[in-house]
Amino acid sequence: MSNLAHIHSAGGAAPTQAISSWPDTPDLYARLAELVGQPMRPIRRDAMPKILRWFDDRCPGSRRLAEQAKTVIPGGIQHNLAFNHPFPLAITQAEGAHVTDVDGNRYIDFLQAGGPTLLGSNHPVVKEKVHALIDSCGPVTGLLHEYEVKLAELVCKHMPGVDMLRLLGSGTEAVMGAVRLARTYTKKKWIIKIGGAYHGWSDQLVYGMRLPNTGRMEATGIPRGATGHTQECLPNDLDVLRRKLQINRLRGGTAAVLLEPLGPESGTRPVHKDYNQQVRKLCDEFGTLLIFDEVVTGFRVGMGGAQAYFGVTPDITVLGKCLTGGYPMAGAIGGKKDVMMSLVGGIGTTSRRAFVGGTLSANPLSCVAGYYALQEAERSNAAVLAGRAGDRLRRGLEEIIRRRRLPYVTYNMGSIVHLQTSGVLLLDTSSLWKLLKIKDEARQRKHMMEEMGAAYTAHGLITLAGSRVYTSLADTDDVIDDALNRFDDVFALV
């Protein structure tokens, strides 16, 4: 491996924010436009056969299990996170910053289950508490348990926009419930989402997914009526958002604006620093609720979430992933009391309410895991330390990209690190004509991203789709420097 220079962390006083600085958004968009405006720089054609042979030679157990999975699981995977070119890896052990597959290969884990394991995988403190709960109570009773109260109190303590919390089973469920709650409370129908964001797979929100302005492109099997009151607009375009709010006011009004506060796809299309504040003002002007989807950012960018970082208080907060530290049933709706009281449960209630619930929601296992995961994150300053690891990784990647004269773009929002090599999610979709033109290019760039991901894996790095990296509390300086040497070896193959 190359002898990469050690990238030192910034000195000074102990940091208090998980995002040390917001990216220079105009400069970042200029660099991203330059990336997608030039020919792709993929792994060299003479290097790919060697990378693929690595999987043949080192991962026979994963290959066998992947082939077996195809006979009983559609496509061989249950979730897109498990996709890996040329075939999914079967993992048998996850601990801290690393995972190990069935063939004994050990990887630096920058997927971290899609982001929820801020403490690193299988944290011993949380594991101990979960084991004790299983021994004494079991995973579910269907009745009230002290830890659902404790978890709700902890979230309400830290998140500025959360006075009350309703626990659910996933981020998708929480978004579904939040939209229903907004419509119930406001008695309005229209929902405006910021295009390109992923808010789960419910019928009404499979709309403008991943690429803005694509509307119902992914809505196979979903009746048009399900998305009949869903709209989208491009991130950072406040003028279009205002026009949609004005038009909707003439036909009943907008119930909510729904967004990811870092920008669509966890900041793949980052927003300007003051964007959320401007959206908040527009929502206030038009009597519209503001929903923050903090499924990824909740606790990962600080105990108070992105709302605390930006100083913007949403009316409704959607939580998931980090809420239970990687344990199952991670989802919740939070908000101000007057809004949340529209979720009052109970059989036969006569109050106007949004019907939301789930048999396994707020089960003891999930709640004890969530309570101790968040307590440990607070005690250890996990979000800040993971953010410093993200800073260190991004600085090292920038050095490699400059030295190797590559057009790639890397940036981070704390522990969420973006590494754009193909730019497939950044293609221009601002008009129908541009959408029609990019179909073939998008396919080629997607394949390049998959090949980059395969190269990372063959060099001992697990990432999210080859373009996103989540750092955790477990990522020490030594782990990050090891990873940088591995990235350097991959980029030598371009």
What does this protein structure show overall?
The chain is of the alpha/beta class and 494 residues long. 39% of the residues lie in helices and 13% in strands.
CATH class of the largest domain: Alpha Beta
Q: How are the strands of the biggest sheet laid out side by side?
A: 4-10-9-8-7-5-6
Tally of strands: 14
Classification by helices and strands: alpha/beta
Total discrete domains: 2
Number of contiguous helices: 16
Roughly how many Å is the radius of gyration?
A: 22 Å
User: What average pLDDT do the residues reach?
Assistant: 93
Distance between the termini: 16 Å
- The helix content is 25-40%
CATH architecture of the largest domain: 3-Layer(aba) Sandwich
Percent strand equals 5-15%
Low-pLDDT segments: 1-14
CATH level 4 superfamily of the largest domain: Type I PLP-dependent aspartate aminotransferase-like (Major domain)
| CATH fold field value of the largest domain | Aspartate Aminotransferase, domain 2
Principal-axis shape:
globular
Order of helices and strands: HHHEEEHHEHEEHEHHEHEEHHHEEHHEEH
Instruction: Report the sheet with the most strands, covering strand number, pairing sense and barrel closure.
Output: 7 strands, mixed
